[in-house]
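Hi there, hope your week has been kind to you so far. Thanks so much in advance, here it is:
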Amino acid sequence: MTIGSSAPALDVEHWVQNGEGKFGKVTKFEKDKVYIVEFWATWCGPCVASMPHIVEMQKTYADKGVQVISISDEPKEVVEEFLDRPVPRAEKETTFRELTKSYCLTTDPDGSSNESYMQAAGQNGIPCAFIVGKDGKIEWIGHPMSMDEPLKEVVAGKWDRTKFAEEFKEQQQMQALQMTVQKEVGSLLRDRKFKEALEKFDELTGPIKSPEMKLQFAMMKLNLHRIANSDQTEVAKTLKSALEMASKDPMMSNQVAWTVWEMTEQGQLKKDKDLLGEALKVALSAVAKQEGATKGATLDTVAHLQYGLGNIAEAIKAQKEAVALGGDNPEIKAFLEELEEELEASKKK
C-alpha cells in the first residue's frame, strides 16, 4: 500500500472514545469525507506528546467532514487505565480521557488494522498517521505533528497527491538504503575496517540522483569520517559538498553550517577560514528566509562562525538578535555573555 492506494476497510474491535457521540464507528470510508487514521500506543512517548495536536486538528476540522481515528493494538484494559491517568504538566488538572474526548480513540488487539495499514505501507515507527481523502484513497502518510499543511490542502481540494507520491517513494527508498548502509557499513566499522567502511559507503550511495538524498547521506558520511578519524582534507571536501547541497534548505543550511563550526571547534577539522566563510555565507542566506525561533537558532550559528573568523563585534550583533528570537534558551544567552566578556577583556589590554 502506498500513496494513491484505496484505504483498507477498518475492523477495529474497541471504540473507547467517539468524540462525545459526534462520530460513529467506521468500517468503510464515506465519499466526500476526510479521515485521519493514526497508530499509537500508551507506552509511546511521542504518541502521547502528539495528542494535544491531534485534539486541535479534530476540533479545527470537525465541521469540515474530518474524523480522527487513533488506533492502538493494546488490550482495552490497558488503554482504559491509561486514559484515567492525569496529563502531566497540563495547565489545569485533567486526565487523558478528558483531553482526547473530541476524537475517536480506539484499540484493536488482534493487530488486523496495524497489518492492513502499518505493515502494508512498510511503516515501522509510531505515531504514524494516514490521511484518507474524499475519494477513499491514501493521500499522505507521516508523523501526525507534520500533517497540518497536507490536511489543510486535502480538505480544500488542493492537495497534489501525485507529487507527494513521488516524494513518499523517495522517502521509502531512502529508508531502505539507510538500513542497507547501517548493516553493511556498520559491520565493517565494528571490525574497525574504517577504510573499507568508507569505500562501501561510497559504493552504496554513489548511484543516488536525488539532491535531498545526497545531502542526507553526506551528513551520514560526516559522522563516518568522525568515527574513522579521517584525513581532514577528505572531511573538508565532504563539508563543502554538503554546504552547496544544503543552500536551498534553510534548516539543513543551519545544520551543515553548525557542523563546520563544531568540527573546527572540537579539533576534528583544522581552522580553515575559507570553509568557515562558506558556512557563514550559507547560514546568512538561511537567516533571510526564516522567522522566529528557527531564525534565532541559525543566527546563533552565524554568531559562532563570525567568532571563529575573528569578527567578535559581528558575532555579538548576531547573537543579540538570536537571544531576542530564541526566547529563554540558556545556551544562546550564555554565548552572548561570553562574547561580551571577551570583548571587554580585549579593550583592557
Observations:
- The chain has three domains: 14-159, 160-230, 245-349.
- The domain at 14-159 is CATH 3.40.30.10 (Glutaredoxin).
- The CA atoms of residues 89 and 322 lie 28 Å apart.
- The longest strand covers residues 66-72.
